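Hi V.,

Quick status before I head out on leave. The structure for the redesign project is tokenized and pasted below; the design run finished overnight.
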């Protein structure tokens, strides 16, 4: 199963909106077939592994990271291919989180008198597909918020300048997480101060994620670099600046999600889920970070601590109301921590 998980990880940057799945076929304690699902519409992991194994599939043990599909989508059901190949036993890391089909593949295998063992390295398989699981079970993407901060918890100088707080290694690590995300959300403040493109640069075969700008009043400068990036979506509340016709003329998609003059962030995430976005990566300032945190819409914090101090007048991590009691504090669970060059990356789980 470890090998199947390793194979599934090969599609980290390409398989969205489908889950990342790997498969290994074993005959007489030797691997005779390997496969992973690379892109939506292409062959699934089990089919590729069966093809490689050929006649050795009969009587074999199959290790697959996700319950084999039992429905016909863009490709035929994998469970039918396994039954036809007359495999002996199927080890499955995790059940399909899609409530419409969950458990059906397992039942079909059992009905064909094929042994099934569920839950082998389940946690590792789930961590590969947190976004897909979230979209299937909650109709929301899995949301990670990235912050690059000083030792005193500051994300930018008082004037908004923030390039660069962290080092080269940390910024290269960010490229990995951008590439594995389906969408990157930023706020108008970051666009104005940093003029980012938010593109994936270090991974040749990675698809460019959807860039999403939260801009309540359409204050975005028409010369902003991000307007030339595709795909791009601007979420706004009202067109106070009368820029909507100009943005549409540039081919920019704009969606109105008004919540008392602010962008409705919950509706935005629901809209992204409808567009089959599994994982969201937020790169924003204290205002938008605080708004997402206050709305309880962040699943995970990714904080890069740099060995620098910016002082009390610099900008913080989250704009939140003043708490008078510690009972109001937001608690997190540390997932992992590691050095990335001279910076310390810490991952925290919320909710």
């Amino acid at each position: 199963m470890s090998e199947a998980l390793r194979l599934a990880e090969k599609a980290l940057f390409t398989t969205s909106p489908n889950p990342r799945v790997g498969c290994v076929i074993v005959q007489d304690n030797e691997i005779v077939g390997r496969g992973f699902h690379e892109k939506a519409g292409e062959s699934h992991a089990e089919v590729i592994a069966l093809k490689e194994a050929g006649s050795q599939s009969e009587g074999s043990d199959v290790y697959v990271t996700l319950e084999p599909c039992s429905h016909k989508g863009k490709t035929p059901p994998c469970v039918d291919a396994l039954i036809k190949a007359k495999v002996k036993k199927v080890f499955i890391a995790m059940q399909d989180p899609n409530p419409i089909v969950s458990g059906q593949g397992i039942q079909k295998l059992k009905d064909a008198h094929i042994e099934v063992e569920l839950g082998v390295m389940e946690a590792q398989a789930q961590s590969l597909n947190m976004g897909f699981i979230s979209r299937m079970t909650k109709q929301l993407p899995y949301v990670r918020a990235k912050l690059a901060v000083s030792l005193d918890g500051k994300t930018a100088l008082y004037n908004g300048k923030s390039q660069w707080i962290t080092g080269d290694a940390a910024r290269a690590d960010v490229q990995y997480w951008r590439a594995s995300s389906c969408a990157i959300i930023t706020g108008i403040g970051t666009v104005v101060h940093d003029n980012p493109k938010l593109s994936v640069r270090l991974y040749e075969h990675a698809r460019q994620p959807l860039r999403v700008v939260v801009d309540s009043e359409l204050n975005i400068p028409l010369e902003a670099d991000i307007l030339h990036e595709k795909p791009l979506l601007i979420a706004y509340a009202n067109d106070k600046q009368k820029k909507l016709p100009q943005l549409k003329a540039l081919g920019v998609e704009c969606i109105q999600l008004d919540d008392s003059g602010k962008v409705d962030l919950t509706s935005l995430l629901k809209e992204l889920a409808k567009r089959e976005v599994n994982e969201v990566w937020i790169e924003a300032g204290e205002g938008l970070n605080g708004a997402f945190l206050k709305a309880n819409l962040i699943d995970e914090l990714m904080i890069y601590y740099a060995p620098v101090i910016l002082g009390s007048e610099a900008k913080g991590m989250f704009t939140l109301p003043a708490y008078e009691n510690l009972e109001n504090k937001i608690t997190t669970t540390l997932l992992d921590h590691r050095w990335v060059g001279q910076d310390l990356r810490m991952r925290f789980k919320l909710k």
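Above is the designed sequence. The chain has a mean pLDDT of 93.

G. will cover questions while I'm gone.

Best,
W.
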